């Protein structure tokens, strides 16, 4: 602890005006001794005061410097991070430039008592649209969620030709009376629905029909804004660790809907095969590093185990 500063008003001492009394008698001698003692005290207090002022000056200087450094540090933190300038959109850097496929994923939450009727209705209508070359779209897969959100149907469509193909299909379906009846009946069975428009990562496989039976896992990742390129860089290497059992089906990222959303679609023979395949990835050198660096990029993640319906090209 530093020296305590003494209040001179409490001592009632007037520094620099100490009176000298001649030692003529005992009374004056006592007064002179008292005066000398007070002068000494005053001198000591004056020195302490000076020291206190110096200490306070130093402390204030240090505090001011610390505050200034703290403010500068906080202020600089807003601008210090350097963003690598890019002259192209993330979507163009991550997709297959020679192709312009657009995907639409639909999530339909069905009334529990209507799920069977809903599946039957979809089996009657969706394959006909998929097979008709009049519509530039393909049904990639259609599933019911087994584990995850219950009583949910998931449909994945591909539009070869991008947004113009999507617009063309929408306009043509409005003229399709069978489809309009399907939509009306479907609406009676749903509690809610949502969709997203997606692009596929260039380093993933393009989803193609496959024979079953299989179960499918849709793993969805909500990334922190600004991290999509970093995610793509790591997974361009990571996908090589997950090809040994042909489990990788497709990888996509959102363009409209929930943004900075990534979907990875996997196929397994059963739940035990899923467990064995995922554990096997950890035995490969480099997989742990990918997980270590990509987990901090995620804000939220979700997993669905899905069973393909009869109408699904992915069985």
From TrEMBL:
Q: Where is the NIPSNAP domain?
A: 216-313
Localization (cell)? Mitochondrion matrix
Which Gene Ontology BP terms does the record give? mitophagy
GO cellular component, alphabetical, reads: mitochondrial matrix
**Mainly localized where?**
mitochondrion
Q: From what superkingdom does this record's organism come?
A: Eukaryota
Annotated keywords: Autophagy, Mitochondrion, Transit peptide
User: Pfam families, per this entry?
Assistant: NIPSNAP
Read off the InterPro entries from this record.
Dimeric_a/b-barrel, NIPSNAP, NipSnap_domain
Which residues fall in a coiled-coil region? none
Name the family: Belongs to the NipSnap family.
Q: Describe the task this protein carries out.
A: Protein involved in mitophagy. Accumulates on the mitochondria surface in response to mitochondrial depolarization and acts as a 'eat me' signal by recruiting proteins involved in selective autophagy.
Q: What is this protein called?
A: Nipsnap homolog 2
């Amino acid at each position: 602890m530093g020296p305590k500063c003494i209040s001179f008003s409490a001592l009632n001492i007037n520094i620099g005006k100490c009176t000298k009394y001649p030692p003529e008698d005992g009374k004056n001698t006592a007064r002179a001794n008292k005066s000398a003692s007070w002068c000494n005290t005053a001198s000591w207090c004056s020195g302490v005061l000076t020291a206190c002022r110096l200490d306070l000056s130093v402390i204030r200087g240090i505090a001011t410097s610390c505050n200034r450094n703290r403010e500068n540090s906080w202020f600089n933190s807003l601008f210090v991070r350097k963003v690598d300038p890019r002259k192209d959109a993330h979507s163009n850097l991550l997709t297959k430039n020679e192709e312009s496929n657009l995907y639409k994923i639909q999530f339909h939450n069905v009334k529990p008592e209507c799920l069977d009727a809903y599946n039957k209705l979809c089996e009657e209508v969706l394959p006909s649209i998929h097979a008709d070359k009049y519509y530039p779209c393909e049904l990639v897969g259609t599933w019911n969620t087994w584990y995850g959100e219950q009583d949910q149907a998931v449909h994945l469509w591909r539009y070869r030709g991008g947004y113009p193909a999507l617009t063309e299909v929408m306009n043509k379906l409005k003229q399709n009376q069978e489809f309009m009846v399907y939509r009306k009946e479907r609406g009676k069975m749903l509690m809610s629905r949502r969709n997203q428009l997606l692009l596929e990562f260039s380093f993933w496989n393009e989803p193609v029909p496959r024979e079953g039976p299989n179960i499918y896992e849709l793993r969805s990742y909500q990334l922190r804004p600004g991290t999509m390129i970093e995610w793509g860089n790591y997974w361009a290497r990571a996908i090589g660790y997950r090809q040994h059992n042909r489990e990788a089906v497709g990888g996509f990222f959102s363009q409209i809907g929930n943004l900075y959303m990534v979907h990875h679609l996997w196929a397994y023979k059963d739940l035990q095969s899923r467990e064995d395949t995922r554990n096997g990835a950890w035995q490969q050198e480099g997989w742990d590093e990918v997980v270590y660096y990509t987990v901090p990029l995620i804000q939220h993640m979700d997993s669905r185990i899905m069973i393909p319906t009869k109408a699904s090209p992915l069985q």
